[in-house]
Amino acid sequence: MKKLTTFLFACLTVMMVQAQVQKPQPTNPSDAGTHYINPIVRADFPDPDVIRVGSTYYMVSTTMCLFPGATILKSEDLVNWEYCAQPLKQLLDDDRYNLRDGKNAYAKGMWASSMKYHNGKFYLLINGNDNKAWLLSAANPEGEWEVRRLSRNYYDPGMLFDGDKVYIACGYNHISMCELDADFNFVREQEVVVRENSGLEGCHLYKIGDYYYIYATYGGFPSGQAAFRSKNIFGPFEEKVLVEKNYDGKINTIHQGALFEDIDGKWWTVMQEDLGALGRFPNLLPVTWQDGWPVVAEGKRPPVSFVDKVPRPVSADKRIKVLPTSDDFSNKELDMQWQWNHNPVPSAWSLDERPGWLRLKSVGIVQNLHQAQGMLTQRIFADKERPSMGTIRLDVRSLKEGDRAGICIFQDPYAQLCVERTSKKAYQLVWKQDKVRNAGRGFEAAEKTMSIKPKKGIIYLRAAIQYGENKARFLYSLDGKTWTPFGGETQQSFNLTVFVGSRFGIFCCATKQNGGYADFDWFTTEP
Q1: Residues 6+ apart with CB under 8 A from 335
Q2: What is the residue range of 125's domain?
Q3: DSSP H or E segment with residue 6
Q4: Can you name the residues that pair with 506 across neighbouring β-strands?
Q5: 355 shares its domain with 301
Q6: pLDDT, greater one: 45 or 440
Q7: Same-domain status, 207 and 255
Q8: Does residue 321 lie within any of the structural domains?
């Protein structure tokens, strides 16, 4: 068995070195423009809410403790998506969100939100997961957003503007209907649906025809989706299960999302699907109506992701969109695929001090990467056929003794490959795996080091993970041509201690003294 494992690892290494690395992909591969294949975006965009304004669709997703957050994508055809905005700059400026004194906000922060367009404005209602909700608003979603903290929290809120009132359906197992005035001041609350020990959550609220609908999920594993309707906003509500938890003994993992009408008058739903360590991916499914109830995917098992082709919306734009992953750091601002792990530190990075390079400076002294400020991350896009890879070209000459700079695949557990300066003229390569909080049974922290001599301070580091297998692996190169595996393989899963999918991260941190920095020439998922 040991020989077989060694052989398989060697084969994967050859494939990782010789095969083309993942190129920027269209957000959805399609069949001659007539079909699409779920997921519509093959990366971690969980808890989606989708609205249409004119001919443009907007989708917001959960971003937890990653900033800027509340990522919004836009699309003209529901299949091809591009970045629109990241309006949430931060939530709180405290020790947790600043990774101080051993504290952190993993699995906290910006949870499932509700997005609406009303009287010429976009609104985002965010479950802040810290006792009070946040309301963001803007006339232009790509412009400045006004941020306001509300007087109380609304768990997994579904928001609805109805006349001069605002209603919010929210809660876990016990779903309440909250009434607010036009200025979002709380007025009253009434419990309208109770499903003890069911995992009922993720509410979205609509008024369609004569009915008010609560579109909600039975979360957990397996998952399901249901609709509740009433002609009175405060009920009583009747229920219909739309997506079962099991189909012919096969577990369903598609759930929690939005219900909406397209520009041609057809109805759709976008819901997340749990797809392993890389996270929860958005799925687009057709909706029809029968006896006043929405029917998802003709009432059958939802199409199998990465396999089944689904007819595209009639108004499909057919123009291929690409969500960027690679970056040569030549822009004046960071591209929108990047998010800081916890609150950013403006003084700890620069795109100006060495034009064409990203400079990351050490902030504070830490022994564990998950407590290091200044880690820049991005989602990992799934490729079913080959490993998803991230590669950096790194200049380590300005590191101080004890500084570490490199690349990681962040989950719980996480793994990293970095360069550490050990003395004025000496460096070592460090592979390390560690946990944030609870990495599961059988996990053991581990570290491996090796002395290296980067030519003119330049080294290339690569991180790779195969969708479905979920094992993080690393390689290094001193010339950008010859690659060598280093360290072990770290088994990952979607862990609720971080509550986001595995992400690429690049970092510079100090273990002994501040004042050092590392320069990143580029990050790429391309050859």
Answers
A1: 324, 327
A2: 29-311
A3: helix 2-18
A4: 376, 407
A5: no
A6: 45
A7: yes
A8: no
Amino acid occupying residue 240: K
Spatial contact of 26 and 36, defined as CB atoms under 8 Å apart: no
Alpha carbon 329 to chain centroid distance? 22
Which of 296, 311, 326 terminates a domain? The answer is 311
pLDDT in tens, 208-235: 999 999 999 999 889 999 999 999 999 9
One-letter amino acid at 168 equals: I
CA-CA distance, 313 to 286, in Å (whole number)?
9
Q: Sign (positive/negative) of CA torsion 207, 208, 212, 217?
A: negative
* Same-domain pairing of 227 and 348: no
Rounded to a whole number of angstroms, the distance between the first and last alpha carbons of the chain is 33
Mean pLDDT score, 94-111:
95
DSSP for 52-100 reads EETTEEEEE---BTEESBS-EEEESSSSS-EEEE--B--S--STTTTT-
Q: Let me know if residue 292 belongs to a domain.
A: yes
Whether this prediction's pTM lies above 0.70 is answered by: yes
266 or 12, higher pLDDT: 266
Q: What is the CATH number of the domain that holds 385?
A: 2.60.120.200
3-state secondary structure of 434: strand
